Amino acid sequence: MAFGRTRNRRRQDAAQQKEAVKGAVRTHGPGLVKALALTLVTGLLVWGGVETRRWALTSPRFDLAAVSFSGLQRASRVELLRLAALTKGQNLWRLDVPALERAMSQHPWVKTIEVTRRFPNRVSVEVTEHVPVAMAVLGDLYVVDEEGEPFKRVTPGDGLDLPLVTGLDREGYVTDPAVARERIRSALEVASAYAALSPDKTERLSEVRVEAQGLALVTASGQEVRLGEGDSEVKLQRLARVRRELGARGLAAEIIHLDNRARPGWVAVKLSSPVSERNGTSTR
């Protein structure tokens, strides 16, 4: 009797374990299958990514075949390619675009530059160059752009025929470049306003001199125009009237003073002829 009860109990325990396993499978089976599937898919994706990257970095399809440039005026494609060490056959995926831009920006004429990869095998380079508007004497002779920035030393090959900005020194520029650039910009603004008067060849601007009392202009003929400070446009209009009056009388001026602070509307003229000087001429 005892033996029979023991065997029945074993059968019941086995049946209960079997039902427990079935219950666990019904409860946790779907989640386990999903986890295994997710692990498999993740593994495949990682493997696929590694293989895709290897293919992209080694495939001849992405070998650089051409580089196009836009915006070049003074800089040359040969110089920029040499600076960036950019050659045909390099893999486009391996190119370090920021490093290429930094390298090409070392060219003195380059103001800004943007390098773009054009897949599968081209690179485009958009260049903005400095626009030279004057030359500044700062110890050496520098080319100045429209923002008053001396961006490179003048070299014989530049072939520039631009007004000079004088009266500044290198030490002052190094000590306070912001102030120096502002003074250069003021000189450039006056030079631009003067050019708008459409002067003839002999009156073409040769130099803008920065002085403690303001600005002075020197023309190609050597005529000096002392503007002083402020009201530059009004003074330049007055200058044009004085020149017309002198021309009508067959006279030429060596120095024209428009810097009378006490009487801004008065002009003093030193004539080029032996008649020497005429002071206090009013143009109001």
The largest beta-sheet arranges its strands as 6-5-4-7-8-9-10-11-12-13
CATH third-tier fold name of the largest domain: Rossmann fold
The domain count comes to: 3
Report mean pLDDT, rounded to a whole number.
86
For the report, how would you describe the main beta sheet? Answer: 10 strands, mixed
In percent terms, what proportion of residues is strand?
25-35%
- Approximate shape: elongated
Helix content: 40-55%
- Do you know the CATH architecture of the largest domain? 3-Layer(aba) Sandwich
Number of strands: 13
Task: Please provide a brief summary of the model.
The chain is of the alpha/beta class. Helices cover 40% and strands 27% of the residues.
How are the SSEs placed, and which strands pair?
Layout (H helix, E strand, L loop, with lengths): L1 H57 L7 E5 L6 H8 L12 H8 L5 E9 L3 E8 L2 E7 L1 E6 L4 E4 L10 E3 L3 H6 L1 H19 L9 E7 L2 E6 L4 E5 L3 H17 L4 E5 L8 E6 L5 E6 L2
Parallel strand pairs: 1-3, 4-7, 7-8, 10-11
Antiparallel strand pairs: 2-3, 4-5, 5-6, 8-9, 9-10, 11-12, 12-13
Helix pairs in contact: 2-3
Protein name: Cell division protein FtsQ
Subcellular location: Cell membrane; Membrane
Pfam families: FtsQ_DivIB_C, POTRA_1
